[in-house]
Amino acid sequence: MEKKQVIAKSSIQPLPNVLVSCRGKDGKDNALAVGYCTNCSYDPPMVMVGIVPSRHSYQMIKDTKCFVVNLATKDFKKEFNYLGSVSGKDEDKLAKMNIKTANGSKVNAPILVDCPVNIECTVVDSIMTGSHEMFVGKIENIQIDESVNIKNGKLDLSNFELL
User: Fold this and answer.
1) Which of 28, 32, 51, 151 has the fewest CB atoms within 10 Å of its CB?
2) How far does Cα 37 stand from its chain's mean position?
3) CATH of segment(s) 18-156
4) Tens of pLDDT along the chain (163 residues)?
5) Which residues contact 47 (CB under 8 A, 6 or more apart)?
6) CA atoms of 163 and 160, how far apart (whole Å)
7) Where are the domains of the chain?
8) Does residue 45 contact residue 138 with C-beta atoms inside 8 Å?
9) How far apart are CA 33 and CA 88, in angstroms?
10) How many CA atoms lie within 13 A of 145 on its CB side?
């Protein structure tokens, strides 16, 4: 079988769909949909998120050196799509969609209350990879809903339909 060569924006599918929330130096909160997110170390535990420099949240994270990765369920699809298509430069997206937030317990960034998992991170490094800057975040705390199970030290999300 002969294979053809292509140029694709993203070659690994499915992408993890997460919401990254942050707080600016001015105290204003924002969140955006992120497709580039992965674990990158288990000791110490770290995750990496990729954000395009033109995004409103990008400078907020650069300035404050923290963010929260929020795992959203399919019930949150409308909000996810909105947060991924409108800029926080133009309006308060969280207020417009009535998204409940709470302060992170270890970082100065909001958690999205209706997401079952909130991973609080401090930026320890970053690298420009072309279109995105990959922020490496050391996990400072993970907040989970009571309905999230832990098996063998890992989050068991099998009873959730994540985006």
Assistant:
1) 151
2) 7
3) 2.30.110.10
4) 898 887 777 667 667 789 999 999 999 999 999 999 999 999 999 999 999 999 999 999 999 999 999 999 999 999 999 999 999 999 999 999 999 999 999 999 999 999 999 999 999 999 999 999 999 999 999 999 998 988 888 888 888 899 8
5) 37, 38, 39, 40, 69, 119, 121, 136, 137, 139
6) 9
7) 18-156
8) yes
9) 12
10) 16
